[in-house]
Amino acid sequence: MIVAFSVTPLGVGEDVGEYVADAVRVVRASGLPNRTDAMFTSVEGEWDEVMEVVRRAVAVVEARAPRVSVVLKADIRPGVTDGLSSKVETVERHLSD
């Protein structure tokens, strides 16, 4: 499964990059395949391991912010691996045609 999520601290002012970086550190330390862009961090793995990483990423922000907003989108396809790369490669292949 692939989960794309964002964690936004509320009540800490406009500059939230430091808080988001804390969450991304948790994801990167997990060892699961992941990718971060301007809007979301995506992480790939089995349900329990991915959701645990999301939980820990939210907790690290929650520890420093009075309120946290989480947006999460999941692509659940049993048996599919390397979806983070293969989905993008498929689109790129179609773009080059």
From TrEMBL:
Domain Thiamine-binding protein residue range list: 3-92
A Pfam match is: Thiamine_BP
| Superkingdom, taxonomy of origin | Bacteria
Coiled-coil annotated spans = none
Gene3D superfamilies in UniProt: 3.30.70.930
Q: Which GO terms describe its cellular component?
A: cytosol
- Signal peptide from the UniProt entry: none
**Family (UniProt):** Belongs to the UPF0045 family.
Q: What is this protein called?
A: Thiamine-binding protein domain-containing protein
| Naturally occurring in which organism (per UniProt) | Streptomyces antioxidans
Q: What is the lineage of its organism?
A: Bacteria, Bacillati, Actinomycetota, Actinomycetes, Kitasatosporales
